[in-house]
Model the fold of this input.
Amino acid sequence: MIITGKSAAPGVVLGSIYIYNKNFIIPKESFLKDEEKNFHLQRYNSVKELAKKELEELKNSLSKIDPLKAEIFGAHQEIVDDITINEEIPARILSDLWAGDWAIFQVYQTVIDALHQIADPLISERSDDFDDVRALLLRLWYDQKDDALLSFKEPVIIAAHDLKPSDTAKFDKDKILAILTETGGVNSHSAIIARSYGIPAVLGIEELLSHVKQGQLVAVNADTGTVILDPKEETINEFQKKSADFFRDRENAQAYRNKESKTSCGVKIEIGVNLSGSNVEPDLKTCADSVGLFRSEFLFLDRNVLPAEGEQFDCYKQILEFFGQKPVILRTLDIGADKKLPCMDIVSEDNPFLGNRGIRFCFNSPDIFKTQIRAALRASVYGNLWLMIPMVTSLDCIRKAKELINSVRADLRQEKIPYGDVKIGIMIEVPSIALAADLASKEVDFASIGSNDLCQYLCAADRTNAEVFAYYQSYHPAMFRLIKDVIKSFAREKKTLSICGELGSDPLAVPVLIGLGLRKLSMGSASIASVKRRLSSVSIEKAEQMAEKVLRMETAVEIEKYLKNS
Done:
């Protein structure tokens, strides 16, 4: 029998199923007598403190060996301390006489439901974190033991309805062959963790747990999103070979992670890393040449008050000091109707991806923007800071943003507060500014191509909408033609240009980008090794030949076929 789902992290493996069922008790709706309410309030406060202690222990135990996992539990600590939640739950207990467990369940459910309504999957799937914290609080309320994933003697293939952040953070990645779930998409927490560790993952498999049995042998092809149950001997032999090849290939790629990034003819290609938080893997200082994209909005999400200037300053300073004189490209607040802030009443829009987002939002909220710029400029003396403006559509946008930044500089000078020599750049993610790159390149110090949004705007296909996914074509001939023109414009002005979207971390596309003239790529940490390996196998001459061929091709399918065979 063959079952299918969404390919979330590539790889081919053969192994035995371990069904992971995490007990989660849904409380019954229940109410208190007046004399019981103080006990339930005290009980909630006690459970909250126990949760914070457990999360602190988990975070501390992981902070040195795996900052990525530690960051998960740091985010969970913030949720436990969420101001609104900690006003609402006591109010429900004291005023409405809800039982404490029912109050926890329902108040968190309100937040989870609200997050599910957000269009951006990266934000929507943050509901997993709130669900995870709720499960922790209820487990402690009922004095249950932690049902974390077990330590396995032999490697297994995890099958689960869903894996929450704390689940994936606790398992031993060396004993997990693959992850299969009934829920989740390519941007879910499970998918991100799987890709970061090179674990094959197939998510969104309908009725997975009704099809598989504990210990059952399965063959997983996560490249195609297929799972073969009880494979026949011929299939077993085939997948044993493919699995061995996959693990050998993964190990070979990892050997390139800390090597200098060069083509086979010795040309240096700068590798940047995309960051979404302040906790970073220790080896990034050596394996990355820069922070090609530092997403600052993580400081603003899932909280009920805006981050103060001091908090932002501390965060930016920490990253700058870690990377020393290596450039850190801070993307200014990329927020809007598709990424709502609990602390602000942002009007819903029918088409948020074409609405009030990125720099448009900042122009409408100049105090928020100027506070961020002020914190960033103050921190710039501790490293090599570059500021990058998102959702730029015209020269008017660039000039207005520069005016606001210069006004902050003037304020700091008047207050005799030092700041560094900060470069100002833009994201090229909207066709209008890409087509005007010859003009934009004269206005800025640098730019980075955001290929994900550029593709969705160019192809008129919402990248979060499964119904039109076939129209979202990252190999569309227009993408490579437009990127070529942007590269030429910035090269003429001798301005730095990079790419920080998924295309820049795709080993198939990387040679074409280099052949078109790019010399700087930025990507998630998990992609660094495989990209460096691909670069080492191709010369500039070969890359240029590939680029010329791609530019003559007519369809995305034709281009993909060519790249896979090159």
